Amino acid sequence: MKNLIFLIIFSSIAVCTLAQKQHTKAVTTNSYLNVPAEGVLSSGLIPDMNAFTAEGAPIKVRELCKGKYTVLAAGCLSCPLFHQNYPQIEAAFADYKDKGVQFFYFYKSLRHPELDGYVQAQNISERLLQLAEARKKLGTKAPWIADTMEDDIRIGLRSGSWSVYLISPEGAVVYASGRIDGQALRDALSKAVGPVATPTKTIDLNLPVISRPGKLVNEDSEWGVARPEGLSILSIVPASPEETYYVKLRAEADDALLTTGTGRLFLGFYPDPIHDAHWNNLTPPMKYKLTLTEGVTATPAEASAKKGKGDSDTKPRQFWVDITSEKPFEEIKLELDYFGCTSEMCLPLAHEYTIRMEDENRGSRTYGMNKGNRNNKRKPQGGNDRMKRLDTNQDGLVSFEELYTQMKKRQGDRLTKERAKQNFDKMDSDNNGFISSSELTNASQKFNNKR
């Protein structure tokens, strides 16, 4: 009897503890995931969200969706998965635009800043310029809107970098996915407004093929530094956000700096391609200066970059700074002096930033870097041999094509592409379209546990 009572009490405690953990997870956002930990908004009325038309006019998303079924698809200039899969949205648009369904891409904060040189927009004018470049680069026919600088849509819909939503004429979410799934979207549209007799194929749209980018250079050089995985992208605030900063700051920190006040700070300075900016190597090089709160020291607190090769270049200038403090602190001030140069002008400029000692938490990470577990801890190393075999392009991630190719070699005609995709989706626990080493290890462990 005593054992039975003990078992009941223990079980109750375990259930309560599990529920508490699940609740904690549901309200926690991990910026390294494609979508927030609690998942995309999948039901209920959409919140009151502000946005802008592609021409810059302010709009309300609820009013935009009112009275019509509306497809909203997230996108930006630096998300390879969006670039590879947006043709499915274009095909659905071609089939359903005449059935009373309206489609909009919403341009959001960058998923992978630094990819192709693009950096986060600092004002709505820059975001609209990026939107226009994305529309031109991708050749989209469906219209675009722009998220606010406060990320109203991304936060309101709990959106990832290539999430898709179908909104009812009353403003309720009737379908949502963290990733573009053309067939699932068509099923939802068919249920809402009726099927299409002959669906458009993406191959018939003659859209540009956006190749998968290679890994960013992550090594020490005269102008750059090698960054370890797992750094936190810090929140930075420009002193004059509406001004044009032709060179943008990127700040990252290791976990020790954020938790103890003593650690390493990464500073990167990037000419903004959206303004056609570059360094002029015939002028004095850029330099930064840090202003620190009492009790905080930095080495070096100020530094100048080395001049690049030739008369001009667009390579980022990167630095490590060692920060020392007896306790965590809130912010660092940075002043940047440089020549802001384009094809039409070159002027000496001085810009200021506040670097906040907190994760910016915008669902972004540098492509090929910043992808480690939080607290800069290495991922589990189990399954390394299998990872090396599957990761044929050696970029640290396994794509569906890589997995399917290797599975096909072993199973031959017995393996269908649909079955391979089911296996891939089970292993891709964060729904970012790739399998990491830790996801591969977890999948192997689950399989062994079942056995």
Rg estimate, integer Å? 24 Å
Uncertain segments of ≥5 residues (pLDDT<50)? 1-32, 372-382
Strand % is 15-25%
Shape, principal axes of CA atoms:
globular
- Biggest β-sheet, characterized? 9 strands, antiparallel
The first-to-last residue Cα distance is: 35 Å
Counting H and I runs of at least 4 residues, what is the number of helices? Answer: 11
The percent range for helix content is 25-40%
Count of extended strands = 18
- Strands of the widest sheet, in order across it, are 13-16-10-9-8-18-17-12-14
Helix-and-strand structural type: alpha+beta
What's the mean pLDDT score? 87
SSE order, one letter for each helix or strand: HEEHEHEHEHEEHEEHEEEEEEEEEHHHH
Task: Explain the layout of strands and helices.
Blueprint: H1 2-26, E1 50-53, E2 58-60, H2 61-65, E3 70-75, H3 80-96, E4 102-107, H4 124-138, E5 144-147, H5 152-156, E6 164-167, E7 173-177, H6 182-193, E8 232-238, E9 247-253, H7 255-260, E10 263-271, E11 279-280, E12 287-291, E13 297-299, E14 302-304, E15 312-313, E16 317-324, E17 331-341, E18 346-359, H8 384-390, H9 400-411, H10 417-427, H11 437-450
Parallel strand pairs: 3-4, 4-5
Antiparallel strand pairs: 1-2, 1-5, 3-6, 6-7, 8-9, 8-18, 9-10, 10-16, 11-15, 12-14, 12-17, 13-16, 17-18
Helix pairs in contact: 3-6, 9-10
